[in-house]
Amino acid sequence: MGIAETARIARERLGATPGVVRPPLAMIELFILRDFLSPDECAALIGMIDANRKPSRLLSENPDAAFRTSETCNLDRENPLVRGIDARIARLLGIDPRLGEILQGQRYGVGQQFKPHHDYLRPSEPYWGRQKEIGGQRTWTAMAFLNVPGRGGETQFPRIELTIPPRIGSLVVWNNLDEAGEPNPATLHAGLPVAEGVKYIVTKWYRERPWGVRRGARQSQGRPELR
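^ thats the sequence. predicted structure below, dont judge the formating
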């Protein structure tokens, strides 16, 4: 299944799901579903993040030390809770679960942020040689808020003048590509600095091909062979 077909199925599935809201945006496809995660699920995920968090990294080199200052952890995909959430997101979008990267948790303390960036991958960057072999381009992003900090921590899309405040359990989904399947600059977004308290989120990225499977490699029992 190609990028265009994946996008068609995702937008149709999201559009047909009760409770999903699609803001009237001309430049990107973005959807919001409140209460996707329960408070208990959010609390359990926060515990996992706190137990395993490390300083966040970037795929590309950036000399700005303040560009991404959060802490991050990859969640155990064999954990029953994580496995269930993975499956629910894939069903919601109608996307083959094999296309999904590992669910990632992020923690932002006071003053921490992720400056404006894109989730799609740039073929001009040094990392592209490896990334195109283990899944290729990122297509869709699904991000869920796990709590509400005292102040700040909104997710902002500056090019479309959209700011989304944190809400416990709320899921935000967007297509990183345009109608032609090319990277969409309008998906530029930022995690604004937390002014009070702590913010927790989880993020799921999908690729154009099974993630972690090198081109030409065989898959084991239908799951990616991670490299």
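The two ends are 23 Å apart (CA to CA).
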